[in-house]
Amino acid sequence: MKNCLVVDDSKVIRKVARHILESLNISVSEACDGRDALNQCESASHDVVLLDWNMPVMNGMEFLQQLTATKAAASRPKVIFCTTENGLGHIKAALDAGADEYVMKPFDRDTLESKLQIVGVI
Amino acid sequence: MTGSRQSGAIRMIAALLEARTGQVLSENRMWRLETSLKPLMRANSLRSLEDLVARLADQGGGPLANDVVNALLNNESSFFRDHHVFQMLATQILPHIAQTRKEKSLRIWSAGCSTGQEAYSLAMTLRKQADLWKGWQISILATDISSSVVERAQAGLFSQIDVQRGLAVNDLLRWFEPAGDTWRISQELRHMIDFRVDNLFEPQAPSGSYDLVMCRNVQFYFSAEMRRKVFGCLARHSAPGGYLILGAGETVIGQTIDFTASMQFRGIYERVRPKEDASSVKAA
Ligand SMILES: C[S@@+](CC[C@H](N)C(=O)[O-])C[C@H]1O[C@@H](n2cnc3c(N)ncnc32)[C@H](O)[C@@H]1O
């Protein structure tokens, strides 16, 4: 079974994402900010990270920069940004920083499912 | 009393839809018909389905009848719908066509194209294989019975939800630009596709034969008789050995003998070659 780390400071979003991911047969762990997520990535391996941008303590971009600095592409999880930042500038910055995909909130099951297919997780 | 009058109106509208498009409404969808028509009724200051039927009777086949049909069709679509089909197209079927065809001409038909995502996904796939298609004449015809979706397909404007479902973010960046709340697809792709309003039962737009026909999620609500008719039309316009792609869960089995399951490509159908043609291939 594939597993996904959902990184978002909103409990509601984490719950919605969990619900969708579990219905796709993916197991879920949750982190409430980038620091928490980095710690979890140290101790466990994930197939994919669903990553919010704006979070307290450490935001999604900082998380991604640290992740790519410490792990080679082949050994790190796929990263799907999932955020309310919908501008082209944000999308490009995320991809430049090493994100694999980008989802603009609000998202639905079909969208998430298709993005997981695109990054090759399902 | 009102109940039976209303159900009479529903049946008349269902009959209009079937006569125009071949779609047979299930009981279930019949009872949801009023919800689908609400916006249209409001726009025309019609208070009930009976009023709508009365106005339709007054006007004969006019624009209101078109609007009713448009409102009742299921137009759901998405980019790269059924991901694996487009993967197979990109990595196997299209390269196979490019390598085996003598003339450098490729003709594709998206039949029942809705708002254009299927045709645009094909166009993107072909553009990404620029080397493979150097020197080729490529044409894509995309048809739908509903004028409103064809207009939207031509305009190439998609909502944020549309451009996320099935579309990789790199494709979004490469082929779209933001236009207010929506995204506009590039002119380069729009120019590759000929979008036309056309009814599969009285087809005018397709001419000659196509190497690849996609007719996906269109025939779901057709009666067996209607399906036979549509497969006849698809067969007439398919090149010998041409490929036919149906929607997930749709099949030619028991509906037509003009197409057969491809041995090479799983889930894809091929136009059966006429007899003489088949023997000449064997002899070669
Ligand atoms: C559910 S959409 C599928 C769109 C696309 N092929 C896909 O799979 O994503 C079905 C389309 O078939 C069109 N359609 C229904 N009856 C038709 C007919 N008789 N002739 C042409 N198009 C028709 C509808 O208007 C609708 O846009």
TrEMBL record, chain A:
Key word Phosphoprotein present: yes
InterPro entries named among the record's database cross-references: CheY-like_superfamily, Sig_transdc_resp-reg_receiver, ST_Response_Regulator
Residues recorded as bearing 4-aspartylphosphate in the entry: D52
Gene3D superfamilies given in the database record: 3.40.50.2300
GO biological process, one term: phosphorelay signal transduction system
Keywords linked to the UniProt accession: Phosphoprotein
Coiled coil regions in record: none
Pfam family, one: Response_reg
Domain Response regulatory: 3-120
Keyword Phosphoprotein: yes
Name recorded for this polypeptide: Two-component system chemotaxis response regulator CheY
Organism of origin: Sphingobium subterraneum
Automatic annotation (TrEMBL), chain B:
Keyword S-adenosyl-L-methionine: yes
Catalytic activity, as annotated: L-glutamyl-[protein] + S-adenosyl-L-methionine = [protein]-L-glutamate 5-O-methyl ester + S-adenosyl-L-homocysteine
Record SMART domains: MeTrc (SM00138)
GO terms under biological process: methylation
Pfam families for this protein: CheR
Domain CheR-type methyltransferase span(s) in chain numbering: 10-276
An annotated Gene Ontology molecular function: protein-glutamate O-methyltransferase activity
Keyword Methyltransferase belongs to the record: yes
Keywords: Methyltransferase, S-adenosyl-L-methionine, Transferase
Record EC number: 2.1.1.80
PANTHER family per the UniProt record, alphabetical: CHEMOTAXIS PROTEIN METHYLTRANSFERASE (PTHR24422), CHEMOTAXIS PROTEIN METHYLTRANSFERASE 1 (PTHR24422:SF21)
Name the record gives this protein: protein-glutamate O-methyltransferase
Species of provenance: Sphingobium subterraneum
Phylogenetic placement of the source organism: Bacteria, Pseudomonadati, Pseudomonadota, Alphaproteobacteria, Sphingomonadales
